[in-house]
Amino acid sequence: MGKEVERKFLVSSPAWRDLVEADIRILQFYLATAPGRTVRIRIGDGASAKLTLKFGSSARERDEFEYPIPLAEAVEMLDFAIGRVIEKTRHHVRHRGYLYEVDVFGGALAGLVVAELETPEDVPDEMLPDWLGREVTGEQMFYNASLALGGIPEIAA
């Protein structure tokens, strides 16, 4: 088990694009969601798949269990997805030694760009990159399970 400690931000500028180190195309879908828990499958670049279980309702910290699963089984489970299948490209961007994951959503969520920062310590606001917009940590409407079930929140559209 690992603790996932993360902050989420809307992205307000394309300045991060010049800093991209790597990217991955992701298909992500949920098999179950309930308050304080989710079960999801993520397929990366059409080549590998992971089953992830998350527990907890704290805005910044949740328990996370993640396991590789056979790609063929992940594809088969697409038939059991609840809500929409999320399509996004995740870009790895470093700023001041911290890794940001910038998700550019496609499909029904096209136009939404969210950055995540996972780190055990609090990063002071003055250390955050200028291309980050409003922090949306703890706003459930910006979590992937909510996006799969509901769509782009009006405030971000």
3D structure, described in words:
The structure is a single chain. The protein has 157 residues and is mainly beta. The protein is 8% helix and 52% strand. The protein is built from 2 helices and 9 strands. It has helices at 71-77, 144-149, and strands at 2-11, 20-34, 37-44, 48-55, 61-69, 82-95, 98-105, 113-118, 132-135. An 8-stranded antiparallel beta barrel has the order 1-5-4-3-2-6-7-8. A hairpin with a 2-residue loop joins strand 6 (82-95) and strand 7. The longest helix is centred in the middle third of the chain and has 7 residues, at 71-77. The chain is globular, with a radius of gyration of 15 Å. The model has no long low-confidence stretch (mean pLDDT 91).
